[in-house]
Amino acid sequence: MSSIRNIFRGQWSSNAKLDGKTVIITGANTGIGKETAKDLAKRGARIIMACRDIGKAEDARKEIVEDSGNENVVVRKLDLADTKSIREFAEGINKDEQQVNILINNAGVMMCPFSKTVDGFEMQFGINHLGHFLLTHLLLDLIKRSAPGRIVNLSSMAHSWGTIKLDDINSEKRYDDRKAYAQSKLANVLCTRSLAARLQGTGVTVYAVHPGVVQTELGRHLSTPLKAAFVVVKPFIKTPVQGAQTSIYCAVAPELEGESGQYYSDCAQARPSRAGRDDVMAQKLWELSCQMLGITWD
User: Fold this and answer.
1) Which residue in 8, 126, 140, 277 could disulfide with 117, CB within 3.0 to 4.6 Å?
2) 238 pLDDT band (50/70/90 cuts)?
3) Rounded distance between C-alpha atoms, residue 161 and residue 30, angstroms
4) 98 Cα distance to chain centroid
5) Which residue numbers are catalytic?
């Protein structure tokens, strides 16, 4: 019954303020990202919306400013399917911003047809994992200097279906959109654990989040049978506002200050799958990710 109650849970209630803090949210122009931006803007934060579609982002920015009464909301171009765009975005942030206190790696794609990023990575692994992995790497020194800081990685319960295929990480031998999505979400959980270990003692903490099953644009590539299944379970699907609550909780909740590397669902710590607790695989994935991106991150 508790899981059913959680489905219908409203907004997480906290009067915690973020005045003087800077927050970056990827994919903040729609769905969970936009609702997260609205909430954190109401708390007084400077919001940097990191988005691929600048036109949609500007429309969303107006809505966020109007809804929150906070004018300190800006849009910056970021295409997570292109490492050149990621590097340009990070370079601009490192040059223009005095601090970044919270990074929310929210953007993603789900169960899309097989395609590749600009750099030749399978699209779901490339955007959901590698793009955010590189972004975090490039912003981490600034986040450390701004400590205390938090990094929130949007994962999914779908990680529990996933395996990391080190010998076919780009799903080129055989592509299954569901398995590729699950692999990318498992990568989010594993790298949250690895990053937390590396950040011990820095004042920066990191969290992986399952937002719940949420009605957003993320489902636009679902097959007809899966779309039909969604119609059946629609009464149990969260709104974007409900889906944003665990991201907000991990970004804001004072009681999480001493926690890092864990997985959260419905504004509470949850247990990831066994594969999501495999620190040996996490290290192998970390090394492979660095190799694929051509970075050194010890």
Assistant:
1) 126
2) confident
3) 26
4) 23
5) 181
